[in-house]
Design brief:
By secondary structure, this protein is of the alpha+beta class. It has one domain: Beta Barrel (Lipocalin), CATH 2.40.128.490. 17% of the residues lie in helices and 45% in strands. The protein has an eight-stranded antiparallel beta barrel. The chain is globular, with a radius of gyration of 20 Å.
Length: 132
């Protein structure tokens, strides 16, 4: 009887360890994972993403909560403020009534996907690749 209880307890611990710990794909701390320069490599709506042959812009997330958005086409830089919890929030600086962009985010290696929470935007999905 004691051996059965020990085996059952050990089996339970092993099962909990295997199923509760996802060591293959740990989620990074989003406050740090965003930092750095990301090239925009695709955009679209939901699963319909068109990938570019070359990046159209880059987004550079700074540790001071500022985001530089540079367009290769227009050669213009825009600066916005960002903050992160379970979502990514973007707010342009210098506007009296700022419009706030709210995105769900997902990291997969050196790729980041942002999905606009509000589906009335023309483009709801952006895919980025982190530059080295």
């Amino acid at each position: 009887m004691k051996n059965s209880i020990k085996i059952l307890a050990l089996g339970s611990i092993i099962l909990l360890t295997v199923f509760c710990c996802d060591k293959k794909n740990p989620q990074p701390d989003p406050n740090i994972a965003f930092w750095g320069k990301w090239n925009l490599i695709g955009s679209g709506n939901g699963p319909q993403v068109d990938y570019y042959t070359s990046p159209s812009s880059y987004w550079e997330f700074k540790s001071d909560s500022s985001l530089l958005i540079y367009s290769y086409t227009d050669e213009e830089t825009h600066i916005v403020k960002y903050w992160v919890d379970t979502l990514l929030y973007l707010a342009p600086l210098g506007e009296e009534i700022p419009s706030i962009g709210i995105f769900r985010y997902q990291f997969n290696g050196d790729t980041m996907r942002l999905d606009n929470v509000f589906s009335f935007a023309m483009v709801n999905t952006h895919v980025f690749k982190k530059t080295k």
